[in-house]
Amino acid sequence: MSGEVLINLTPMETRVAVVENGVLQEAFIERSRRRGIVGNIYKGKVVRVLPGMQAAFVDIGLEKAAFIHVNEVVAPNASIDEHTTISHLLQEGQTLVVQVTKDPIASKGARLTTHLSVPSRYLVYMPDSPHTGVSQRIEDEGERERLKTLIEASQAAMHDEAPGGVIIRTAAEGVGQEELATDMHFLLRLWRKVDERRHSATPPALLYDDLPLFIRTLRDVMRADIERVRIDSRENYAKLKEFAKEFMPDVESCIEYYPGERPLFDLYSVEDEIQKALGRKVQLKSGGYLVIDQTEAMTTIDVNTGGYVGHRNLEETIFKTNLEAATAIARQLRLRNLGGIIIIDFIDMEELEHQRQVLRVLEKALERDHAKNKLTGVTELGLVQVTRKRTRESLEQTLCEPCLTCQGRGTLKTPETVCYEIFREILREERAYSPETYMVLASQGVVDRLLDEESTAVADLEAFIGKTIRFQVEAHYSQEQYDIVLM
């Protein structure tokens, strides 16, 4: 499997696409006016303590106060019992050093923690924790022990310079002592600077700003199967090469400047794939399709056979559709950055072995996801539940906003419904004011309905109230919008 990273930079936004075998798998978009802040460390001030929610709001200098739960305030290894309350730990006006774990999303402020950490290519340094761990994605026990031994040796060599703990990242698999020691020295220098600011800054203040998206991508996304990184900004190409030369020399040769006249995101039809990812319906190659509905609480995914009729029997048709859907769903979760609870309604399968195979395919496809996720088995209702860690806005939330016409419902009242609302409103106005004439202002579709299919009802209403009703088209009115003018 060959991979490629495309980085498109403009003064307004940074866009990153991860492509595998010519197919878009992930897209990251960050706009200069609304840059992601996950990983940033702030010195803030507690503005409100909520004992009933075991949480507090902290001013870190953003438009909305950020939120921190009691579990994120106490030390990582400390136990919380019914007597431990947020009021015992925090008071209004108190200064607090915190790190952002989740970007502000919709009407919700950022989520915070006091369990601070700073990442590098191979390690995550935790200054306030004694724990040393290895990424769960490194499954080989021998490799896990080797890495632990190397990092403990590095810490011991630094004596008291490296208090705290370390998590060894997936990218460290196979690397040697020198690379880990270099990363450790870098993180310690970085933390000393943050610590100096922590003692001198006046809240609210930014103590540590994570790398910009195009460099962060190189640090977090690069894998052995990614053969090339293309960037279309000459200035930032130089910055990317400089960063790689210092911290990731093994990938420096993969970075290329793209000077082509054809837009970078037109390669591999990335622009088209992003547009498709904003729709509800996802077509499968077999003829089946997915329907994806994203709500605030959860995302539901429905699998349908569509135009796929199979070749042998119904069970085989359903099984093959579900297998294809499992792989497509894992890709859509990454591409759309869907987080929280995801409910998947696969087509009902009679054979238990088919259910197990579909779940195995889905689980295998989810292993490539950089976000933490958890998959359950098939429930009594035939549904599959997935939880995926949400740290930033989904693709839809980044690029779209609720429809002003339907207020984000996704549906509109029919002209017939609006006509009957108008009739009821006229009757209410008649009882209250009894004017000589009524002028109805509405959209073209509603007026056409009133003058055509509802003309008999209009005549009956005029006879009932003994008044004339006139109509006027307002081109800028939505289908649901109307006004009644008394004359």
UniProtKB/TrEMBL annotation:
Q: Identify a single GO molecular function assigned to this protein.
A: hydrolase activity
Pfam families (alphabetical):
RNase_E_G
The enzyme's first-digit EC class, named in words, is: hydrolase
Q: Acyltransferase: is it a keyword of this entry?
A: no
Q: Domain of life here?
A: Bacteria
Classification via InterPro entries: NA-bd_OB-fold, RNA-bd_AU-1/RNase_E/G, RNase_E/G, S1_domain
Keyword vocabulary terms for this entry: Hydrolase, Magnesium, Metal-binding, RNA-binding
The record lists the membrane-crossing segments as: none
> What's the protein here called?
Ribonuclease G
Q: Required cofactors, per record?
A: Mg(2+)
